[in-house]
Each structure stands twice: as C-alpha cells, then as structure tokens.
Design brief:
- The complex is a heterodimer of chains A (402) and B (530).
- With 402 residues, chain A is of the alpha/beta class.
- In chain A, 35% of the residues lie in helices and 30% in strands.
- Chain B is α+β, with helices and mostly antiparallel strands and 530 residues long.
- Chain B has 17 helices and 12 strands.
- In chain B, the strands form 3 sheets. Chain B has a 5-stranded antiparallel sheet, sandwiched between helices. Chain B has a 5-stranded antiparallel sheet with strand order 6-7-9-10-8, with helices on both faces.
Chain lengths: 402, 530
C-alpha cells in the first residue's frame, strides 16, 4: 500500500514536470495586438500590419513613461496571412498575441479582390475571439490607417473601436460589424454584408505627422475617421453608400440606436428630431407571384432643437412636426432603397431572409436569382414617428425675440 | 528498527518488575500502616511534593493515622480546616461508643468526623495512587486494610477568562479553562436539564488524564455515542497533554487535509452543539473541547451567527463562503488566467497587468509562490515571537512584502494585491483548523494552475470536492446537508433562517427527538383574537 502511494506520488510529480507548462506565456511575453491591417501587395501577396501595444507606455506612470510611442507596428508579407503573422517574429521580440484584437482593417484593394480567404485564419485560430470590428479602409491602405497616432485614446486601435461604437450609437451612419456577423452575411444568400469605411487623412510631412508630434498639436494634422459604408457582393467590395443610404441601411436592419434628423418647419426654418428608439419590422410576402417587402418602422424621439417659430405647447404643432418628420424620413428611405436596388443590385437589407422566413418554398425558387429579383423588388415602407418630449424648455425663446 | 524494538521490550519488562517488586507482590493495602507508608513512598519515588503527615487520632484509644497529599494540587486550607482540625480535636469522644472494630473506625470517621463532601473508600495501592496524584487526600489508618480518598482538589488555576481565538462582538465572552471541573461547570451552567450526562474516563497510561464525555441523553445518537466510547477505549498512549492528542487518535481520516473533529473553547458553542445532539469530549489540562461528529459547515459557522439577526448572519455567512474560495483559489486563478488565459481579461486590465509585469524577472507562479511563502513565514513569525516585538514584524512585513518588493521590481503590484486578499480571506473563517487546511491546499492548487491552467484548477477542485464527499465523521457524512442533500437542514447551512423556523435538529446527527420546539413566528397580537 505504502509503496503504491509512493510510486503514485512520484509519478504525479513527474507528470507535472513533463507538461513543461506547454502553452504557458507570461503577460510580458505577449505582443498584445489590438489592431491588424490586411493589404494586398503588388505581387499579389498579403501585407499584414500588426499594431502592438507597449503596455508600460499606456498603463500609468510605472517605468516613467519614457516618451516612447504607445504602439508599435510590425509588418510582414506572406503568401498567406498566417505565414505573415509568424514571420513577424523576425522583427518582434514577442509573439503576436491576437486574442485582444479590437479592429481589423481591410485595405480597399484587397476588399475588391475578396476578403473571404484571409478571414479564414481569423475565424479558425483559437487564439482569436470573434468580437472585433471589421472595417474597410477607403481610399488609403490599411497600413496607413494603422500608422496614425491618436490623442484622447492613446492606442489607435482603442480609438477606432470606441469611435465606431459611439458613432454607430449616436449618429447611425456607420455600422459596427463583428467578424462572426460578417461571415454570417457573406454565406447567407438572403443578405449581403456591409462594412464600415475608415479613412486616414494625412496632411503635411509624413515623418512628423505620423510621429508623436501629431498628438502634440491641438488640430492634429493626421486624422482617422469613419466614413460611409462599403457594400459587398459575397466577399467582394462593389461600392460605397453615401450618408443617407447608410442611415437607411441602419434603420431598416434595426441597427439604429439614436440619430438626429433635420425637418423643415411649415413657415421656414428647421427643427431637429432626435431619434431615441427605432424599431423596424421587415416582412416579406409573395403577392401575385411577385415577392414584396413590407417595412414597418416605429420611431420614438424628442424635439431636439427648434430654429423656427412654432408653438410647442399645442398638440397640433407636435402632430405637425411628427408628420413632417415622417414625410421627410420616408422620402429619404424610399429614395435610398431605390438607389441601392438600382445601383448595387445586392440585397444588403436582408430582404431575402425575410422572404425565406415567411415563404420558404417561394424562397427556394427565388434564391437562385435573388440579385435579379432584388432589383425589381417592391418595397413598401410604413413609418410612424412619435414625439415624446420637447426638452427642458417649452416654447423656444426665439418666439419672444421681437 | 529492530534495535529500537528490542530496547523497548527490555525496558517494559524491567519496569514491570520494578512495579511488582516495589508493590511487594501484592497490590492490596496492608494492615501495618508503616509498611503502607513505606510502600507508597517507594512507589512515588519519595518525591518531595508528596506530603506524608503521620498523627494520632484520639478516639478513646489513640490510633495511628496518616494522610497523603500532593502539594500544590490540593486546597491546603481545606485540609487544615476540614480534615486535620476535625481529626485532631478530641470533643467527639461521646460518639465513639459504637466503634467495635478497626474498620468501624474508618466508617465512623467518614460518617461523623470528616466534614467533606467527596469521600470514597480505597483498598488497593493502584486505586489510591491516581487520586493522590490528581489532588485527592488519602487517609490511612493503622491496622486497617482500607483507606479513605477525600476529594480536596484545589491548587492554582487560571480562572475563567475571555476567549482569544473565537471572538464575537455579541455573545458571552467567557471561555473554557485548563480545569476539567470548571469546564463541565461552565456547560452545566448553560444546560440545566438532568438529561445532560457526563461520563469520565482516564486516558494515558502515565498521565492518567481525565477525559469527560458530555451529551444530552435522548437527543444524542446512541450509535455515535457507542462509537465514541469504543474509539476512546482503544486509545493506548502514554500521555494526553492536549485534546489534539485525542483528536488524532479518534478522527476518521488521518490522510485528509480537512478536520473531522470540531473544537471550540467557548462554552456557549459547546452547549449549542450538545443541543444539536453532538457529543463533547472534554480533556483535563486544555481549554479546547472536542465535538463529534463534525460537519464541514460547522467550521464556517460562528456562534455570532445565532446571536445576530438572521438576515445579517446570512449575509455574513455568504461572505465567509466566498472568502473560502478566495483563500483557496485567488492566487491560482491569477496564475492560470495571466499565463494561460489572457484572452479572458478585459483588454484594459490585460494591458495594465502586462505593464506591471514589465521587468519582473520571474514567472507568475514563482512570483506567487515567493509571496505566499513570505506571507506564511511572516504569519508564523508573528505567532511565535514575543508579543513585545510583534509590531516590529508587521512593519517589516508590510514594508518588505508590500512596497519594497514591488519597487525593486521583484514582484508585480497586482500580485501583492492578490496575496493580501488571500491572506485576509483566510482569516475570515471562524475555525482556525479549516483555515489552516485551506491555506495549505492553496499551494497544490497553485502548482496545478501553473502547469495546466484553469483546467488544472478545475481538476483539483473536483478532486477536492470528491474527497470531501467521501469523508465521514463518526458515521455522519462530512458534507451533509449538502451531500447528501437534506432539505430541512439547509436552513442552517448557507443561510441562517430565523430562530422560529429552526424547527428540527440536524437530521443525521440526532436520530431521536428531532423536533426542537413548536415555535411560531412572532407577530403582533390582534385585538379580540383571544
């Protein structure tokens, strides 16, 4: 008995030695990559750009904050993305650790060629969480976007991440799309993916503007900002949506959280309708053998700003403003949907999915040639806007200025 | 090994020979007083603290008599007043007419002269030696083969003082002392039912320590009581100096980090346990009283839980459960998450932790091990060191393992927080034994975490739970009422329900008489209701 116990103990102890802590990595052995850029080089290879944080530069005063840049860029070319990432260890003292990836920027040229292949690694690798946002760099290369220093948020990746979230929430003309959502849309026949666009605007000499000096200026010469939505057909970029189209996309796909809409007053001037809640129901149906889409949108909001003389204390005025908003908004929606149908001919709204849900049999017939059907699809939009509050003052003081 | 065995045997033989030689081949008292005195002196090796006082009792005819007692263990004043005084005064001549034989003298003394409560007759050397050495007075008469054992225990005692280990804010403050008699009295004072029974045994061949077994007849489980007796009778040891000796001899499982015998130095705790149907084992010479059977949850319950309001007690008890987990797992979770599962941390926290680790030369495991070891050393030093320099240790401790280590870049600041949190959590448990087991188990958990990550922690934890579920304390499953699940008993496990809802006694402990009282929830009396 004693012998067995001794042997077991020794074996257990030896066992824990043999593991060698096989995938143990200390925190200071990680190159924490918060943003990654994918570009296409001229010779058809991938150019992978990794933005790695320098922790001691970001977290507080420990180590003195020696004035180093908060992030470091590592770049490598490769036939495949994985190859390029592993190659980075030629330059990086630590292995790229992408678990905390927050932004993936895809270069426009690569997006046009197709993003499916390079995304396989990112969805397959177990080190990656799929909760990072994907964006397409518009007019610039992804690497350029990643090289811009930012202020307020020291890490550019965090800046982009927060920026996108705030903007998608408060303005609703950008779309925060995560990897799994993107892949779902790519494979779905009834919905095509849309990604937000990101642009870098670099003025002046690159050597100074892309250095820390950039953030030392109040009006930074180099900026990155989100702009427009990229429309994809399967995994290929085919065009960009303008602001109204982008907003339309967000409203119809129920992504709108809050935004503001300018509405005209009856006697000239403008008022602002602030959307606080928007709920759209998309229903597909087959009428007379033709597919049709009914969209019912319920919007709640406040009067955000009044730049004209109206009497807000009267119910009629409120009703009038509601009507005005509904008319204004509906016009934009109808117009934008039409434009998208005609110009891009891809179903980014998921109308196909809606028909699939209501009439799966009809869908199986329509599916094959959906893009064609989408083009001629009849879309009925119902919009109902309500005003709940008028803010902290009643009638505008403008009324009293004589 | 062989060598030692032989030697032991030889010793035993020679000791027995000496016993019999000195006892003159017979254990019984002799008629000749001088021979008896001689014998006793021989048996105790003429020890100087054994007082032998010879004198004459003036009954009509004077009789030679002698009293023996151990100096320091007896109440000298009482001997003076109630034995010597009465024996040596001559005004009892009137009553002596009844005396016809020497034996009558003895019963006459017992019945008429000695003004003492506890008197028993003894006939053999063996039966008089232990009382003599426990503080009784032995009276021998010439020409009489019997003697009297007179209870005169006294001597210096620590007295009842406030408990130091199980402190409460609300509740009685007094604690047990080293004196068995005082301790039984402290319990009796709380439970006045005649059903509170006390049985005593002498355990320890040389120390002859008094061990009391206390229980409430009718509530106690007789099977468990029988088992306690059997296990205590099985003990064959030369000395019992503390109840820990007994605990180790009667506990169910030696190779377990968890204690299967509960102890307390608070009379109110012991009284409460007795009322639940448990059995208390009191040992002379220690204020620590053992309680069996012990359940895992009793180590997490503090007497104050029952003195405070129920809702507050419940919250505090949940805090205690939480702190067990912190004390056991905090360092290992830190190691596992930072070295294997960094993706689990929020990005901001990860960067901040990574920044703290910049320049730390050791892996997180070594770092944690160093800090935990340093803490254990400090804790032990604080305990063993003379109280006067205790404050010095705490200053050095905080400076060394706190600030300095971080500033020197040997450990990261987060690790200091984790270790400090663990240390404080381990002091939350009311029972010191369990908190020691948890402190000890922390280290294997850290090793598992360092080699297998969270997976290792889970395997270790599951093994721990399995082990806990196999344990039994005197036949009662250790983890009850959680495993096996007993619904009625859950009222006093994670929660403490109001007093009036504690209707039944713990099911597995008290088999009979399970209902406490028919108590009802208090509510305002409605007018005209009665």
């Amino acid at each position: 008995m004693k012998r067995i116990i001794t042997i077991l103990t020794v074996l257990t102890l030896l066992l824990s030695l043999t593991t060698g802590c096989w995938n143990r990595r200390e925190l200071n052995e990680l190159a924490i990559t918060l943003a990654m850029g994918l570009d296409l080089t001229k010779d058809g290879k991938y150019l992978v750009t990794a933005q790695v944080v320098n922790p001691s530069e970001i977290a507080g005063d420990k180590g003195g904050g020696g004035g180093d840049s908060p992030v470091v860029i590592y770049q490598e070319k490769g036939e495949t993305v994985f190859e390029a990432i592993r190659k980075m260890t030629k330059e990086s003292p630590r292995k790229i650790y992408p678990s905390h990836l927050r932004m993936l920027i895809i270069g426009e040229s690569l997006a046009k060629k197709g993003i499916g292949k390079p995304l396989d690694l990112l969805s397959r690798d177990w080190e990656l969480r799929s909760d990072f946002y994907v964006a397409v760099s518009k007019g610039v290369r992804a690497e350029e976007v990643l090289k811009v220093p930012t202020s307020l948020e020291k890490t550019p990746a965090n800046k982009m991440f927060d920026n996108l979230e705030v903007s998608a929430e408060a303005w609703s003309a950008t779309s925060a799309v995560m990897l799994d959502e993107l892949i779902t849309d790519m494979v779905s026949p009834g919905k095509q993916p849309v990604l937000t666009g990101i642009t870098a605007d670099i003025k002046g000499d690159k050597r100074t503007t892309l250095s820390k000096q950039n953030v030392e200026l109040i009006d930074t010469p180099a900026k990155i900002y989100f702009n427009q939505l990229a429309v994809f057909k399967k995994d290929k970029l085919i065009g960009w949506l303008n602001e109204n189209q982008s907003k339309t996309y967000n409203i119809i796909t129920n992504k709108e959280v809050s935004t503001v809409v300018n509405i005209p007053c009856p006697d000239g001037g403008k008022a602002v309708y602030q959307v606080t809640k928007s709920d759209s129901k998309v229903k597909g149906k087959i009428r007379n053998g033709r597919p049709e889409i009914d969209i019912n949108i319920q919007v709640e909001g406040n009067v955000g700003e009044v730049e004209c003389k109206v009497d807000l204390s009267k119910q009629e005025t409120i009703d009038m403003l509601e009507k005005s908003y509904e008319k204004e908004k509906k016009e934009i929606l109808v117009k934008s949907v039409k434009q998208i149908q005609e110009k891009y001919k891809v179903d980014i709204f998921g109308f196909g999915d809606a028909i699939h849900r209501t009439d799966p049999k009809a869908w199986s017939k329509l599916k094959k040639d959906w893009d064609k059907n989408f083009e001629d699809l009849k879309v009925n939009i119902q919009l109902n806007g309500e005003i709940r509050r008028v803010g902290t003052i009643g009638n505008s003081f403008l009324n009293d200025i004589k | 090994m062989n060598f030692f065995k032989k030697k032991k045997k030889e010793k035993k033989i020679s000791f027995e020979q000496a016993q019999t030689d000195k006892g003159n081949h017979t254990d019984l008292l002799l008629k000749d007083l001088n021979k008896n005195i001689e014998n006793i002196k021989l048996l105790v090796g003429n020890s100087s603290d054994i007082v032998v006082r010879e004198f004459q009792i003036d009954l009509p005819q004077s009789i030679k008599a002698c009293i023996f007692y151990t100096d320091g263990l007896v109440d000298t004043n009482s001997i003076q007043n109630f034995i010597m005084e009465s024996l040596l005064s001559s005004d009892h001549a009137e009553k002596t007419r009844t005396i016809t034989s020497k034996h009558d003298v003895l019963s006459f003394l017992k019945e008429h002269i000695l003004k003492v409560g506890d008197i028993q007759e003894v006939t053999s050397f063996r039966s008089l030696l232990t009382p003599l050495l426990s503080g009784d007075v032995i009276l021998l008469l010439d020409g009489c083969t019997q003697g009297l054992k007179i209870g005169m225990r006294g001597g210096k005692d620590r007295g009842v003082t406030e408990v130091t280990t199980e402190t409460v804010v609300r509740g009685p403050k007094e604690g047990f002392t080293e004196n068995l008699r005082t301790n039984t009295a402290l319990i009796r004072r709380r439970i006045k039912t005649p059903k509170l029974w006390l049985e005593t045994k002498k355990i320890g061949k040389e120390t002859q320590t008094d061990v009391g077994i206390m229980y409430i007849n009718g509530i106690v489980n007789d099977e468990v009581l029988k088992e306690v007796h059997e296990r205590l009778d099985r003990i064959d040891i030369d000395g019992i100096l503390e109840s820990g000796y007994i605990e180790e001899m009667i506990q169910d499982e030696t190779y377990s980090p968890f204690p299967t015998v509960y102890y307390s130095e608070r009379p109110d705790v012991i009284a409460a346990e007795l009322l639940e149907g448990k059995i208390a084992i009191l040992v002379d010479g220690t204020p620590i009283v053992l309680v069996v059977p012990a359940l895992f949850v009793s180590f997490i319950q503090s007497p104050e839980d029952y003195y405070q309001r129920a809702d507050i007690s419940t919250m505090i008890r949940l805090v205690r459960f939480l702190s067990i987990f912190i004390a056991l797992l905090a360092p290992s979770l830190y190691i596992a998450i930072t070295t294997f599962h960094a993706e689990m941390l929020p990005t901001g926290l990860l960067i901040s932790l990574a920044a703290q680790r910049e320049g730390v030369p050791f892996p997180a495991f070594i770092e944690a091990l160093m800090m935990e070891t340093a803490f254990e050393i400090l804790r032990e030093a604080g305990l063993r060191m003379p109280k006067a320099i205790g404050s010095a240790i705490s200053i050095v401790g905080t400076l060394v393992i706190g600030t300095a280590a971080v500033e020197a870049g040997i450990v990261s600041a987060a690790m200091v927080i984790v270790v400090a949190m663990t240390a404080i959590s381990s002091f939350v448990l009311p029972a010191f034994t369990l908190s020691m087991s948890i402190r000890m188990l922390r280290f294997p958990m850290m090793v598992l975490a360092a080699s297998f990550g969270l997976f290792g922690i889970f395997v270790g934890f599951i093994a721990l739970v399995l082990h806990l579920c196999t344990l039994r304390s005197f036949g009662v499953p250790y983890m009850s009422p959680m495993g096996p699940h007993i619904r009625e008993d859950m009222k006093d496990t994670f929660f403490r329900v109001p007093r009036w809802a504690m209707v039944s006694r713990p099911r597995l402990i008290s088999q009979r008489n399970n209902r406490r009282e028919n108590v009802q929830a208090p509510k305002p009396q409605k007018e005209g209701n009665e």
